[in-house]
Amino acid sequence: MDLYDAPGGCSMFRVFQGWVALSDVTPSGGTIRVCPLIKQQTAYYMMKPLLDQHKHEADFMGAWPGRCHDISRDHHSPIVDCMVSVPPVHYGDGVFWHCDQVHAVEPKNEMTTDSSVLYIPTTPMCQRNSEYLKRQRDAFVNGQTPPDFPGNNCEETILDRATVETMSENEKIGMGFLPFPVDPQAAHSTPGQRLALKQHNEILGL
């Protein structure tokens, strides 16, 4: 959702946020921390500002238009106290969490080896995401920043940046340069899935 045309707005539909580990990552190694009690934490940060003793506070306790909701010990200490680090992961492991789940990165990385992850949210195929991919594809061709990110367009003048010609077939499908295969005989597909694929290819003009 992007109501304020601000950096950090999201015009895609994300089911989960997540990342894939590029190395071993352990607790105290700069890994992700989450509050596992999603119903309780959501009720807490949404309802607390509405209590009589807080109704004079105009900032909704860390919520500002166009920015993520800041969870702080001053306003949300029970949530902060519930935060836990995810267990150790190895390269190739994926970690996913609900988009409304309170999460943070550990403040310190005490690992003696590399600790790296690649942010990779889950974005199902639907009209909104296919429309985003079309805009992202056009930006990629021109070396521009993808939609929803601060537009520094820093690759426009780089001569050896990635191009369509450097992509594999699967990469071209993922970036919207080739149609997503639609197999009406696939045993695992449903009419709704086939319709989504058809609409996806049509939105991309493929």
TrEMBL record:
It comes from the Eukaryota. This is DUF1479 domain protein. Pfam families: Gig2-like.
